[in-house]
Amino acid sequence: MSKQEVTTVGNLGFSKNGLPLEVKYCTKCVESNQRFIGSAPHSDQKSSQKDHIIFDDEGVCSACRYFEYKRTINWQEREEELLELLARHRRTDGSYDVLVPGSGGKDSRYTAHILKHKYNMNPLTVTWAPHIYTDIGWRNLISWIHSGLDNILYTPNGQVHSTLTRLAFENLLHPFQPFVLGQYNVAPRVAMEKDIKLIFYGDFYPEKGIGSDVDFTQKSFDTRLFTRTEKQDLYLSGVHINDLPRHGITTRDLHPYLPLEVNRLSESGIEMHFLPYYLNYDPQRAYYYSTEHTGFEVNPDGRTEGTYTKYCSLDDKVDGFHFFTWFIKTGRGRATEDAALEIRNGHLTREEGVALVQRYDGEFPQKYFQDFLKYVSLDESRFWEIIDSFRPEHIWKREGNEWKLRQQVS
């Protein structure tokens, strides 16, 4: 079955991977209707209209509608709700009472620092290690810890992780899938081991507006995302787990990547909450807060490849390829992600956002290209062969020897 085979849902055409064949852009921000839940559609993922961002009859995306709703929120009442939640979990015996997953970037820094210093909690931070640390990423992790926090750094088996990353790149064009799975599952596992009943995350799904049934009042993670049943058919990096031994990966190697059993998590009493539900969050303010209070450093190159910002996703040499493969599969990249959010937060006009997207979206992450090829054991020709095989026909066209987007935000 071809990657580009089309299915029809109702009267709308969708690609096999669930993307609308008619590309549209939000009339308020620069978001595309190709925005998919997580990072992008994969060939082993069942397509659903609920998985991508939804535009209303006025051409406005659900994320922009959330930000309109956000202006009506009584933040004092939300903070009182937060205080009640924290009071239920706060401990007086010196043990940890909240877990904050993160890399030491602006969001996790803001979350951990404010919980500790404003709300008198005793946080434990936990980090799922990047594929390959950048210099600035390592410095930021160390300065985060030295700002006054305890941390567990979980580093997966390097041979297993690089193999899974290569397979995910080859089969799904998603080199970040193994990292994302490990990052998701390490927090509840550590919380259970340390008997911590509260986990706080620094980002918030309604701000990204994914799905036709976005719940603007969602305050906590759906724990089903972190669980599995014994009989569930599991795939990792596009390979059934029973077939992974052919690639030198045994069942016991997979433990860090697999979700917890349903009963273990449901019976643990662990709650997983989003801090931006309770506090009026703005990534740019979090950046300034983290710089002032925790010594956060920005990209020393002035900006990050693929975008105009300098304070997002700095810790991993594979980050750029995560966003670049996202751009290949959906036609929207890191600059779109950044500009859409900054327009919603009032830091950019739509016109400014359009100009930035047109200038930076899809820029190739050349700086760490050789590091990436070495990590996934591929040569350059094979890399581009895989990249080109995943270009959706409704997004890309070839003119001579050059690939071009059929449509871009304007």
From TrEMBL:
UniProt keyword annotation of Transferase present: yes
Keywords, ordered alphabetically: Transferase
Domain of life from the UniProt record: Bacteria
GO molecular function terms noted in the UniProt entry: transferase activity
Protein name as it appears in the record: N-acetyl sugar amidotransferase
Species assigned in the record: Desulfovibrio ferrophilus
